[in-house]
Design goal:
5-stranded mixed sheet; 5 strands; alpha/beta
Length: 152
């Protein structure tokens, strides 16, 4: 009998892709899942802070200013998916130390620094992001970055 079940990386990255569908960002939908011992701890998608209006409702300043992808993150109203997943863990008192972050997109440098300090040991992504400095930070912190292109 052939085992056609997805690998664990494909499985959790597939869940991150489903989480991304909740995104309210006008530029791209990103989802993140933090996993430890093959158990989901938290999820996050990119969108405005809780209780605030979403970009899909009021527009995107970065889009209006034609800011290229990977630049001027401080202008963005939304939190990134990785940020939301880590903040959800903090909000509920869940340790993500030694966890694996599954994300539909490579983290930016801001998220990379947060991931380092949160104690994440590995990141599995579906696609790269134009931020080489983030890759350097992750490499220096000895956080493994794996690209899995085929998901469920």
């Amino acid at each position: 009998m052939i085992d056609n079940r997805p690998s664990w990386d494909q499985y959790f990255l597939g869940i991150a892709q489903l989480v991304a569908q909740r995104s309210t960002c006008l530029r791209r939908q990103v989802g993140a899942v933090v996993v430890k011992d093959k158990r989901i701890l938290t999820t996050g998608y990119n969108g405005a802070p809780s209780g605030l209006k979403h970009c899909q409702d009021i527009g995107c300043l970065r889009e209006e200013l034609k800011v290229p992808s990977g630049q001027r993150h401080e202008l963005c109203r939304a939190l990134h998916a990785e940020m939301n997943a880590l903040l959800q863990a903090a909000h509920y008192g869940i340790s993500v130390k030694e966890g694996i972050l599954y994300c539909t997109l490579q983290p930016c440098i801001i998220c990379a620094k947060m991931i380092v300090n949160a104690g994440i040991k590995k990141i599995v992504i579906a696609a790269n992001y134009p931020d080489e400095n983030a890759k350097k930070i992750l490499k220096e912190a000895l956080i493994e970055l794996v690209i899995v292109e085929k998901t469920i």
